[in-house]
Amino acid sequence: MQISTIGYWGAYPEAESATSSYLVSKDGFHCLIDCGSGALSRLQRRLNPTQLDAIVLSHYHHDHVADIGPMQYAMLVQNAIHQTNKILPIYGHQEEAEKFANLSHQSTIGIAYDPAHTLILGPLTFQFLKTKHPVPCYAMRISDGEKTIVYTADTSYFEELITFCKGADLLIAECSFYEGMDGSGPGHMTSEECGKLARDAGVGELWLTHLPHFGDTMKLKVEAEQLFNGPIKLAEEDLSYGS
Ligand SMILES: [Zn+2]
Ligand SMILES: [Zn+2]
Question: How far is ligand 1, taken at its centre, from the CA of residue 79, in Å?
């Protein structure tokens, strides 16, 4: 299983980049995790959207779903050009009915995942944990039977995250604030909390993502390093793990 960063900003994309989006691939199966602003454009540096087998969404904030509309148009246009009838499944939670309904279009179909159960997509399994965020949001534990990756999605820090992340080979943690700040209001984590989570869960590697638009983001890595001894990477486009 390989995971690559397509977009890594929180809130909005800075120039030539995208907000939250990651491509997970295994044996020719391609799954996009979140589809933020700019994701469709940046994804096409790697593959054509018609090559996607599924999209899985953590929640319906714009910085995670903004490119779902353009993705639906891309599928529609590609189907027309190539005289195909491919329907792309988009998995999301059903706790906001109107937002879930928007996932279905002529060339895409919204499918609800049940967060209480494991979702199996091709060679990948997904387990979910509801996070602490102003809207319903789910962290994902993704496995191909060999390696395990946890993506926190958007959340403030809470104890149950440790169990959910336990022993993961890679932890992709949202890191929206710097050491000493309080992210619990908007529902986000600090560098310190990411480092503590990685340490207490005993993960193999930590990526800091969902980056803020203020301060020196390299500082986030330095701050997390005070707590976690393993490898830490600041998310950037094309940052990849696995093969
Ligand atoms: Zn976000
Ligand atoms: Zn959010």
Answer: 31
